[in-house]
């Protein structure tokens, strides 16, 4: 039985079915070497960046310090994010499905008992050219004449360490920042009214993520999915590197679904990164913490036949699509779609989760499709 999957894209008809999927690794870094990450932002009392590669532990050392990032004495406020960024090998958007994760270790005694609404251990995917420093829109409240642009186009993991604050206790959640225009942020999280998806990760008073242990974090965005999970993000904290056992604290499971991104909203992500966001302190202890990150990865979900890449090499056109390893795929061409006549130009056995073809154009306009 022949299966034909099609999509018109630059003259190519490629697979677009809900068939078997493959996670293609876009970025993986165990921080064994300094790599290509770039830091911008505040420094600590010793003049060190708040995120820095440590050759001894082969990890990224991280510090979170609210006092170093925010000053409300002027107008506009002084808002200084600290970030450690690396460009993705290809951009991602709200129509794709992807996941990213990292191993987090919090240092014992580094997180204070604060009543301030503050987040640490932020990591995720961002579009650094589409975002401004005011992630929490704090400066929008000062009525100044030079309001700073708010954060836009991001998907990240957050650990809120506020304790007994405004009815909130330590909790985790992912946040989606869609592309914003104007002064209002558009951030998507979960909702208690979202039946079947809502899980309140409030750990209860005086309960926090455990320190001095490896926490395996992962966020998955289901952009290419259909049904109830479409355009939602899911985050969880796991106790094992295979990410099969979800951490439970004080009887609360550490997993969280966002609401879906509205179809009229979009985002484009170009950078992987770690962030230290400023937040105004209105009287509680400053948000603090330190720890380390390791084994960062970003994977793109490629369904069987979903277009993955297309580029020219010398006089050939190379392209690839999602596939089932070991299956035979046929590259077929057609000069006139209305004719229904397709000619096989190549046959390839897929290796791994992708099938790749090389085609030499003959100068005529053609459409291509892949079948098996």
What structural keywords apply?
372 residues, Jelly Rolls, 28 strands, mainly beta
CATH architecture of the largest domain: Sandwich
Number of domains: 2
* The level-1 CATH class of the largest domain: Mainly Beta
How big is the Rg? 23 Å
Q: Structural class of the secondary elements?
A: mainly beta
Main β-sheet description: 8 strands, antiparallel
Can you count the helices?
A: 0
CATH fold group of the largest domain: Jelly Rolls
The residue fraction in helices comes out at under 10%
Uncertain runs with pLDDT below 50, 5 residues or more?
4-19
Mean pLDDT: 86
Strand share of the residues? 35-45%
**Total beta-strand segments:** 28
Query: How far is the N terminus from the C terminus?
Result: 8 Å
Which of globular, elongated, flat, extended, rod-shaped describes the shape? elongated
**SSE run:** EEEEEEEEEEEEEEEEEEEEEEEEEEEE
Give a structural overview.
With 372 residues, the chain is mainly β. It has two domains: 24-303, Sandwich (Jelly Rolls); 307-371. It contains no helices and 28 strands. It has strands at residues 4-5, 8-9, 12-13, 21-29, 38-40, 51-54, 59-65, 70-71, 78-79, 82-93, 97-106, 119-126, 154-160, 171-177, 187-188, 215-222, 233-238, 248-249, 252-253, 255-257, 268-276, 288-303, 307-313, 316-322, 328-334, 343-349, 354-359, 367-371. Strand 2 (8-9) and strand 3 (12-13) form a beta hairpin. It is elongated. Mean pLDDT is 86; it is low at 4-19.
Question: Layout of helices and strands, plus pairs?
Answer:
Elements: E1 4-5, E2 8-9, E3 12-13, E4 21-29, E5 38-40, E6 51-54, E7 59-65, E8 70-71, E9 78-79, E10 82-93, E11 97-106, E12 119-126, E13 154-160, E14 171-177, E15 187-188, E16 215-222, E17 233-238, E18 248-249, E19 252-253, E20 255-257, E21 268-276, E22 288-303, E23 307-313, E24 316-322, E25 328-334, E26 343-349, E27 354-359, E28 367-371
Parallel strand pairs: 3-28
Antiparallel strand pairs: 1-28, 2-3, 4-22, 5-10, 6-7, 7-22, 8-9, 10-21, 11-16, 11-22, 12-13, 12-21, 13-14, 14-15, 16-17, 17-20, 18-19, 23-24, 24-27, 25-26, 25-28
């Amino acid at each position: 039985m022949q299966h034909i999957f099609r999509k018109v894209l630059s003259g190519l008809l490629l697979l677009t079915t809900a068939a078997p999927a493959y996670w293609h690794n876009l970025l993986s870094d165990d921080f064994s070497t300094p790599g290509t990450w770039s830091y911008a932002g505040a420094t600590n009392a010793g003049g060190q960046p708040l995120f820095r590669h440590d050759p001894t532990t082969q990890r990224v050392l991280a510090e979170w310090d609210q006092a170093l990032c925010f000053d409300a004495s002027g107008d506009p406020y002084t808002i200084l994010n600290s970030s450690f960024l690396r460009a993705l090998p290809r951009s991602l958007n709200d129509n794709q499905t992807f996941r990213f994760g990292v191993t987090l270790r919090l240092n014992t005694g580094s997180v204070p008992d604060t009543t301030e609404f503050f987040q640490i251990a932020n990591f995720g995917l961002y579009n650094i050219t589409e975002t401004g420093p005011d992630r929490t829109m704090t400066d929008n409240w000062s009525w100044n004449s030079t309001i700073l642009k708010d954060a836009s186009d991001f998907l990240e993991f957050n650990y809120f360490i506020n304790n007994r604050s405004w009815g909130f206790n330590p909790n985790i959640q992912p946040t989606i920042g869609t592309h914003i225009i104007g002064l209002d942020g558009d951030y998507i999280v979960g909702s208690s009214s979202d039946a079947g998806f809502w899980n309140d990760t409030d750990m209860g008073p005086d309960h926090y993520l455990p320190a001095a242990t490896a926490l395996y974090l992962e966020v998955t965005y289901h952009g290419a999915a259909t049904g109830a999970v479409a355009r939602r993000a899911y985050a969880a904290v796991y106790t094992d590197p295979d990410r099969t056992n979800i951490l439970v604290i004080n009887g609360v499971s550490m997993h969280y679904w966002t609401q879906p991104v509205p179809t009229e909203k979009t985002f484009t992500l170009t950078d992987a990164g770690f962030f230290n966001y400023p937040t105004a302190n209105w009287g509680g202890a400053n948000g603090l913490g330190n720890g380390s990150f390791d084994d960062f990865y970003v994977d793109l979900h490629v369904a069987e036949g979903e277009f993955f890449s297309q580029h020219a090499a010398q006089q050939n056109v190379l392209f690839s699509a999602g596939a089932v390893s070991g299956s035979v795929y046929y590259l077929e061409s057609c000069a006139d779609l209305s004719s229904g006549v397709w000619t096989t130009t190549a046959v390839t056995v897929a290796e791994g989760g992708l099938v790749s073809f090389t085609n030499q154009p003959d100068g005529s306009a053609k459409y291509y499709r892949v079948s098996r």
